[in-house]
Amino acid sequence: MRLFVSIDLPDALADAVAEVQAPLQDTPGLTLVDPEKAHVTLKFLGDVDERRIPEIEDALETAVDDADVGPFEAEVAGLGVFPSMDYISVVWVGVGDGTAEMTRLYEAIERETTAIGFDPEDHDFTPHVTLGRLKDARGKEMVQRVVRDDPPTLGRFRVEQVRLTESTLSSSGPKYETVTRFGL
């Protein structure tokens, strides 16, 4: 099973995500994500043997407890790209308020998952919601123009849980199913 750990945006922000994606709709080479599946990934675990689920759940429960983060407000705002404006592979909207709490959760999850054998991340954590992936440079200038425009504020939401999610890839896009929820 293909697994990741996330904070999901509420359904109420799906329209705001779609609105921010609208100017990017016809960008050559850009594949937009489904706004209804918008989330902040805290850790991508990859393909995992189903028998490891209890071990992962224990590690995540410990991480959430150790992070000592209670429910908090988060703001989704601003646009950015990975890895750089010269070479764009991911277009994203960022997190303003709530960054410190998400970072504490990420650090605890990273510590506990690497302790049970998952590879550590090879980049700094930037809390974000992926809007789309650019497969080639044809749409680079269009993405640059949209990202440089006035940064949008999509809205605020209350974060009350972290979710272990199974992602099943299909021709119509990924399908997500919750494995376990961990309350803050």
From TrEMBL:
<feature type="short sequence motif" description="HXTX 2">
    <location>
        <begin position="128"/>
        <end position="131"/>
    </location>
</feature>
<dbReference type="GO" id="GO:0016874">
    <property type="term" value="F:ligase activity"/>
</dbReference>
<dbReference type="Pfam" id="PF13563">
    <property type="entry name" value="2_5_RNA_ligase2"/>
</dbReference>
<dbReference type="InterPro" id="IPR009097">
    <property type="entry name" value="Cyclic_Pdiesterase"/>
</dbReference>
<protein>
    <recommendedName>
        <fullName>RNA 2',3'-cyclic phosphodiesterase</fullName>
        <ecNumber>3.1.4.58</ecNumber>
    </recommendedName>
</protein>
<keyword id="KW-0378">Hydrolase</keyword>
<feature type="active site" description="Proton donor">
    <location>
        <position position="39"/>
    </location>
</feature>
<comment type="similarity">
    <text>Belongs to the 2H phosphoesterase superfamily. ThpR family.</text>
</comment>
<feature type="short sequence motif" description="HXTX 1">
    <location>
        <begin position="39"/>
        <end position="42"/>
    </location>
</feature>
<comment type="function">
    <text>Hydrolyzes RNA 2',3'-cyclic phosphodiester to an RNA 2'-phosphomonoester.</text>
</comment>
<keyword id="KW-0436">Ligase</keyword>
<dbReference type="GO" id="GO:0008664">
    <property type="term" value="F:RNA 2',3'-cyclic 3'-phosphodiesterase activity"/>
</dbReference>
<feature type="active site" description="Proton acceptor">
    <location>
        <position position="128"/>
    </location>
</feature>
<dbReference type="InterPro" id="IPR004175">
    <property type="entry name" value="RNA_CPDase"/>
</dbReference>
<dbReference type="GO" id="GO:0004113">
    <property type="term" value="F:2',3'-cyclic-nucleotide 3'-phosphodiesterase activity"/>
</dbReference>
